[in-house]
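HUMAN: Now follow token order:
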Amino acid sequence: MDIKITKSIFSPYPLLAAAFLLLSGCGDMSKKQNARTEIGESALRINANDIIPFFQHWNLILGDGSNVGQATDYENKNFFYAKSDDKEDWVVFKTPNAGNTHGTSNNTRTELAQLKKWSPMVEANMKATLKVTNVSATGDARVAASYSVVVGQIHSADGHENEPLKIFYKKFPGHTKGSVFWNYEINTAGDDNSKRWDYSYPVWGYDFSVVGTEENTYPPEPEDGIALGEEFSYEVHIKDGVMHLNFSSEGHKTKTFTKNLVSTEYDERSDIPEQTEKLFVSIGQDGIERKNAYADEGLFFKLGAYNQTNGKDPKVNRVWCSGAETHGGNLQKQYADGNFAEVWFKSASITISDDAISNEGYFRANDGLSTKTVYPSEVIPFMDKFKMLMGNGTTVDILVNFEHKDFFYTVIDGTRRWVVYKTPNSGVTSKNSSNTRTELHEKRDWTPEEGGKLTGTCKVMQVSLSGDARVAASYSVVVGQIHSGEGHENEPLKIFYKKFPGHTKGSVFWNYEINTAGDDNSGRWDFSTAVWGYDMSVLGKDKNEYPPEPSDGIALGEEFSYEVNVYDGIMYLTFKSNHHETKTFTKNLIASEYVKKSDLPAQVQQLFVPLGQDGTERATAYSGELNYFKQGAYNQTNGKSREINGIWCAGAETYGGDIAKQYENGCFTEVWFREATVGLGTSPK
């Protein structure tokens, strides 16, 4: 067969034109192979836009977080390229479990994002035919996002930038068949988007809410599922504010759905579906939707491989954080052992209204955002009122626009940004303490009579995995304090979180330390009051023998908040957490109840008196003394021998003070705060 090599209607490149004629005109695969040999592989490279000619409508985001712009005549062998199986040509989208992300997401993507946005009241259409060839080999079966990839989306470019449509494929390890489902994310009412949630609809197989009972225990394989490598198609059609969905696959029943995008069905708390109650409400994501849903926002399509399996610890977010293998972000190692998502598309198209406008604002806001520094002072803006001591002994006086990646920085948990305070079991401490801290120190001093108020909403992500169960301070961290700056410099308040190894739930309690009478402070002691779970006095019988798990405790990663309000010498404490009883306490800071030996509580007799700490308190307690607030992570687990002090010296692992090794082996504490305030005390209501 004679072929004249010229520019053709197929391509402006003559060798590529010949390649198309040879490879598409000759049905015989041997002739195709001969053509490859004669012309040369380099001349036969087929670009993605030769297979699906619509790349002028999109920017391409890669699994390294970069926006490469329009992908015409573009390939990247790590993320995006054309590939042929024995029958057809495909466009491959590939992305690892860990890499640089785009915007505020926890997840990598190799995904097209539309260059224009449009109103849900106009007409818009996206179609695709694809097959998923890989989902992550690791994850946590209890986490809904594990082992899944999003292959098509509608995304809002405005407001909260939520997603009225995500089309998922998910397959558990060991299963042949996976599930296709789609999620609708509410456009949360109000300015706080942390309470947003998804509702999931099954297409073939399960919906998003079907999870395993344990990390590596999976539900039964879905009978009507889709296998890896099995083709399916979707069509998304928007008209007059309604989204119409069509899913088809050979050998499977065609499924259709409709969803109103401009009028909500979730604008009352009672409207929250049972599926959402089960999956999201338990982690505090229980918002309602604005009445007109996405009516006033610009929407745009996305298409590709948006990997939903990441390496973040499930205690950060039990819906979205999979704890999967990431090999420290090493791309090739992830690809070598299946820790990636890969999706092949053989056809796709979009049609949008002429009224669509530029989506540049979305890209300008999100490109490179994951690599930009967001300082703690941008999340909690009271940092100008504090200085800080970090776990390496460094004091920082100016915290505005300051971070330290080992001790003090910000993260996103999938719904909002937090300030992280992190400190090892052993580092450099303050002059009077055995314990490291990454902790704020208020610059203002005040007397109990003058008063002050401190609030914080936090979650403890880690306490030391080593220690001695017989030592009260083991496995604990102080997340808020009042500290005296005069006299004995004792602490009228320490708010603790403590969790024994092997337990799911830990305890929150607060301690009052007496302001010891006289000049000798060695007899000082704490009295501990339980909030949820145990107080400080509940110990193990042996070093590695723990008490029963508290039934009403707080898990690692579970939010709680506190308010400390000192007014006219009285300390008012309030503790709140979803699904836990709100607790309130009062304590007089200017008149003692411990002025005689007979006043010592039974708890103190048990815990402190055997160590010779049996002092009494001055009658006026902390009256007239200057105090200040502290907040952060004050690690109570240290490496000192229990023989020195059976209450405060935990004998924990410290790796000779090597901070990196302590962090690698769980011998540290980490506390996240998302909100906090400091100011004057107020009259209690």
